[in-house]
Amino acid sequence: MMTESHVHTIFDKGMRSKVEITGTLIGHGSSRREGSPAWAEVEIWRLDGGGYLVHRTGWSLVYHTRDTSCETRDRRQRGDPAGVADLPDDAEPCPKCRPEYPEDLPDGDGVIRFEFPRHSFDGCDTPEQVAEKLTVIRHRDKTRSVQFSQPVNDCLEECARNDAGFAKFLPGPVRFGG
């Protein structure tokens, strides 16, 4: 899947400014499954200027009532104020707060809350730093754990096919007790 080097621009509603990536996409993984309204994606870019960029995106098709009781982990309302025009064609009403269907909602901004895509970007100098960004989970109690998800495994496998520096991060057997 390796692409040729080019400038790739990312800009979604909710982002403060455009992000331009000049480089080559060397890995991609996605948790998107048929029938699931939310998923995550990860991309690894080898930058023309040296180093790598980890781009993670959380996607959702779910929208909520304007004054939803649905909360995030840090107790904020889910989604951001939006209008019907902001919804993708395959948007899904939240089964918990049960907003009206788009055709039954008034036009204008702020009539619902939509879970717009969430992007994060991490610059890394080496494949080791990329693998750490993708697999090391930092917990609130300051402990760490290592976790490999299927999208991360898929992404690292693709990276290894396109950049030899990633070969040592391919999943292997997990061994305990010698």
Q: What would you say this structure looks like, in words?
A:
By secondary structure, this protein is mainly beta. The chain has two domains: 6-59 and 118-164, no CATH class; 62-114, no CATH class. 12% of the residues lie in helices and 34% in strands. The protein is built from two helices and eleven strands; from the N terminus they run E-E-E-E-E-E-E-E-E-H-E-E-H. A five-stranded antiparallel beta sheet has the order 1-2-3-4-9. Strands 6-8-5-7 form a four-stranded mixed beta sheet, with no helix packed on it. The chain has a two-stranded antiparallel ribbon with strand order 10-11. 23% of the residues are buried. The model has no long low-confidence stretch (mean pLDDT 91).
